[in-house]
Amino acid sequence: MSKAFQLDVNGSQWAVEADPKTPLLYILRNDLALNGPKFGCGLGECGACSILVDGRAVRACTIPLSAVGSRCVTTLEGLGDGDNLHPVQQAFIDAAAAQCGYCLNGMIIATVALLQQNPSPSEADIREALRHNLCRCGTHIEILAAVRGAVELSQADLRNEAARKVARMSGGATETLERPQ
Amino acid sequence: MTVERETSKDDHLSREELLAVLSAGASGEGELYLTIGADGLITAFNGHVDLGTGIRTSLAQIVAEELSAPFEQVQMVLGATSVTPNQGATIASETIQVTATPLRLAAATARHFLLAKAARLHELPVESLIVEDGIIRTATLENWSMTFAELVAGDHVRLTIDPEAPLKPVSDYRIVGASRPRVDIPQKATGRWTYVHDVRVPGMLHGRVVRPPYAGFDHGEHVGASLISIDESSVANVAGLVAVVAIGDFVGVVATREENAALAAKQLKVLWRAAPERPDLNAPEEALRANPSTPRKLADRGNVDLALAGATTAMDRTYVWPYQMHASIGPSCAVADFREEGLTVWSGTQNPFPMRRDLSILLDLPEDRITVERLEAAGCYGRNCADDVTADAALLSRAVNAPVRVQLTREQEHAWEPKGAAQVIDVRGGLDIDGGPSAYDFETRYPSNLAPTLPLILTGKIPAAPDTLQMGDRTAIPPYAYGNLRVTVHDMPPIARASWFRGVSAMPNTFAHESFVDELATAAGVDPIEYRLRYLQDPRAIDLVHAVAERAGWVPHTKPGTLGGEGDLLYGRGFAYAVYVHGKFPGTAAAWAAWVTDVAVNRKTGEIAVTKVICAQDSGLMINPDGVRHQIHGNIIQSTSRVLKEKVDFSTTAVTSKEWGGYSLITFPEVPDIDVLMIPRPDEPPLGVGESASVPSAAAIANAVFDATGIRFRELPLTPERVLAGLNGGGQAETPAQRKRTVWWKFGLPIAGGLAAVAGLLTMGSPWRTAISPIERPDANVYSSVTIERGRLVAAAGACNVCHVGTDGLAFAGGRRFDTPFGAVYATNITPDVENGIGGWSYPAFERAMRQGISRDGHHLYPAHPYTSFAGAEDADLQALYAYMMTQTPVAEKPTETKLKFPFGIRALMAGWNAMFLKAAPFQYNRAEDAEWNRGAYLVETLGHCSACHTERNVLGAEKGGKAFLSGGFADGWEAPALNAHAKSPVSWTKEAFYNYLRSGHARDHGSAAGPMADVVSALAPLPDADIRAMATYLAKGSAPAGAADEVTTAQTVVAASVSAQADAARLAPKGARIFEGACASCHTGTNALSSLALNSNLHSDSPDNLLQAILNGVEAPAILAQTTGRETPEIMSMPSFRDTLDEQQIADLAAYLRARFAPGKASWDGIGDAMRRVGSVVH
């Protein structure tokens, strides 16, 4: 039986009406036209439909609509900041980490979740984190390179952010210094 | 809406200002290859499609190069039947090698025309003009230039491809041969690329198909003739259902929303004839030898028979390749829009033009009224279900007169995709007196054809008779100069549905060639590479072999074991080489490839790790070197996966590998390090690179395993159990498919209980009770809001709606079925409807029913209604509950009545039963305990009636007393585990654990509530925290002895034990281990918030029932999770049902593994089959 739900997806509020058991994946794709998450198995096995829920990578094909509540959902489309790519997306493009690209969504989402938990993962950490994201084309080598690239980009981002903070602080100080003149 | 439609050829050619290049048509105008617009934009057309190999980018490079135009100005249109040339199916790595040739000539033709035009306009000698980046200049006039756009503007010109057009010398190449980022990846990485799965057309409906039971077999008289009947009433309740469509054995459903189409397909009751039995394809050798075939001799030189007779060392070898699958990551999907004027399909097909012909036959529609829009799909490596699903969508669209999108399920894609066929190769040979190869007598069997598009045979449009094609001959001629050579291909029809799969028959043929030559070398006491070089004559092959040996630092050796080992590991290194010859015999050679690979073999577990692959490839001119490198990587990884892990499993009638646990793929931790050496050959023609590097894989790995272990493996995949059997000197036996398996969930439940005992009751007690007169329905306004609220909480504590919920979800409407040992009991309607519910019941009638189990009219209720617990409830609680129930919405529906079989159908017997088992006394509070404990005890023992499920019942269905109280029982097909000190869970239940479990449905050290208990947790949601804590306090006191080992330490110990048990469990149940890894471990690993299964009580129980329940029916995420947020909260994912996905054998394998791995101290479960029948018989 259809029910009305309010969802928080990519920072916006969405009203949808569907059977409470509907997998969130169908809602994201069909009602919200978000094509990033892909249908792969419907069994939570392959990772193609991965999304972030409250920052954690989960498989949208096995989440009933009724379980989402007010949690924050982020899809591949919501990772970047306006026109700016998320550093993980940038790293995957730089490494040409796709053949057919169908698994790419899951790989990127899993990497974003990994780097949030562990900003400087080892090679073994990376391989383990992606263990249950399947790729059939054999793009693993490029994907691993992309994740290593993402680690560097994210750390560079953090350094830049810190530098900007310092600059703001010192800029502020300059202003105070300059004011008396 | 995402509607992708390519501009048609006519529309392209209708532009007034245009330069177009077409092929020479037999009559009139030919096919379109290239256009340049007045805006300078270049559009190029190719009939092949991009399967993820990046040919969209490479073809654009070829066009840009030949035109000397900027790469960014070129756009490729691939495989759209309305505009691209018909270049057949995208197969055999031939896009760059074959179909790019006319495109390159078209670009050259255009370039010469533009140069000539510029020369003419400005009266300059054409030789003086140079073109760069789409701009024509002359060395003599510094400020003069013309763009392509200017030259095209104002004119409409159509050129015919000039087959003699001079091509640019390779030495001038700047775009071709330089790596170029793929044009599609930025959009794919941001979700903006439109795959076929993403197409949405206005008014589009959603379809699903229901396939017949002979999954994965496409020939025989039963194909298209197995449907007996469809019960449409089984989907009458599906919202938005538009149609159920059946044509022959084609069955589909259409609904307005995707989830409803999926529900309808799952729920639709279809009766099929039993599928015919097939030969055992799990160990395919026998079946392939028995398959009728026609020998075809490809080579016969020297005198093979004589040489064999004279061989000093005779070697007769057989190599067996299993059935494998393309295993596309996304199941196929298509959209079709059938209208009077014609059909448009949006398809991920690999073969747009051949598929258009199939659609034309299927729908009796001329080909020129069918448009195929080709969009990318999940990678395919030959032929998956893309064409099938397009035809499915077309049939459904025609039936409902609207555009329909059809998405296949994972199970359908796995089961029905045309497989890569099994193959059996026999080689007879040996050494001559000088240690050279005496003869090479090679015979190969490969049961495959093109696999007809499924709806054509399901609907009976074409007969389901198996074609015999000549597909077994790819790379059948060995690359070595064997003086006495005979090569025979036994052409045969398919057994299981099969078609092209990357490397086709070349991969198995090369497995044989390169394993055999390795064995010859060892027998001759010669280094394997040196031995090959003695008989290799192709200079490019020789260069390649030298190059890879040097790159790998190959150390010549004449026997295995030279690399030694470490602990349980044995190290080895292997070599193999092939040039992939594809297409109809004698075929065309694609790129040359050679592997050196390192392995580590664990002699205890049988696991093989491919640790390094050094691969050299000669691809001729490389259009996009990075693209070539990625193709080599992809081939190495995919073929390593095939060699180590991949094999399709079959029952006697169908494919049983229907998801990633039943068909395992390589995972990231298993991916080898790869070193690629690309031989620069810019002056040689470009060669196909899509498959070549796969071809040497199997022999290279098997040869490396021989080097490590001294054992030759000639059958794939190299699973741990096969390797262990080899190491232990045993055969490589495969479990044959069990014959004539009965569908286990169809068995009835044996009736428990003793008739004699029941008969004895007849003499006891007074069976008849008086009716209590009906009343007018009480006015809801007479109850205070405080009373109603108290009643609401009583109803929550009693979880009344869990049992009394209506079949359509209406609260308290009744009708839910419970299977008891005595028969099916249906819950009654307890809404205040006078006719059908309890609206006419006075409070005394209600109280009597609650405390004594007597209905208002005097008949006895069965103790499925837990009145024995409610008997002790506080008056005020029952009064409040009455008030609450009377204020609910009445539902005027009569649920199914309970009708038990004799003697249980005699309700009067319950009088005797009550006399024996009903103790109608108020609840006794315990003064020695505090108020919280007492509140908890009251809730658990009366309103909550926990004992109704968690206490064992005697043969008469009464809860046992004494020690049995809360010591565990069975209910509704589930085991309700002990809630006291008898609990089997490895970590004791603390107050906190009980609280978390009852409040959120999840306890860290125990797992999640499932089945009826999940419903109970949801029902308890309205209760205040204090009540939940009270229950937890009471239960915890009865459960864990105070001061028991702290749960953190216990949990760690238990989890550590499951880690230690992993290898033993995998050895005991290797298939179960793979199913766990592929199907379960994505959630059930230590890396996410779900509890380890080692802590789950179900794995430690004496019975596997709850585990089987979870696997068969799934576990829904407790609805209460929707009220929680944050990273630390439990997972919101539900566990899917595997009822339609895994078969009985797979579940038994999985359960055996889970028990051995996660409860290593416990005895293995006997009678999994019986338990499945027990659990499966419960109707939900």
Description of the structure:
The complex is a heterodimer of chains A (181) and B (1180). Chain A has helices at 24-31, 87-94, 104-117, 123-129, 140-178; strands at 3-9, 12-18, 50-53, 56-59, 72-74. Chain A is of the alpha+beta class. Chain A folds into 2 domains: 1-78, Roll (Ubiquitin-like (UB roll)), CATH 3.10.20; 81-181, [2Fe-2S]-binding domain (DNA polymerase, domain 1, Orthogonal Bundle). Chain A has a 5-stranded mixed sheet with strand order 2-1-5-3-4, sandwiched between helices. In chain A, a hairpin with a 2-residue loop joins strand 3 and strand 4 (56-59). In chain A, helix 2 (87-94) crosses helix 5 and helix 3 (104-117) crosses helix 5 (140-178). Chain B is an alpha+beta fold and 1180 residues long. The longest helix of chain B has 28 residues, at 95-122. A 7-stranded mixed sheet of chain B has the order 11-12-9-19-16-17-18, sandwiched between helices. In chain B, strands 4-3-2-1-8 form a 5-stranded mixed sheet. Chain B has 5 domains: 9-188, 2-Layer Sandwich (Aldehyde Oxidoreductase, domain 4), CATH 3.30.365.10; 196-276 and 332-407, Aldehyde oxidase/xanthine dehydrogenase, molybdopterin binding domain (Aldehyde Oxidoreductase, domain 4, 2-Layer Sandwich); 285-304 and 313-324 and 421-727, Aldehyde oxidase/xanthine dehydrogenase, molybdopterin binding domain (Aldehyde Oxidoreductase, domain 4, 2-Layer Sandwich); 764-917, no CATH class; 979-1176, no CATH class. At the A-B interface, helix 1, strand 4, helix 2, helix 3 and helix 4 of A face helix 5, helix 6 and helix 16 of B.
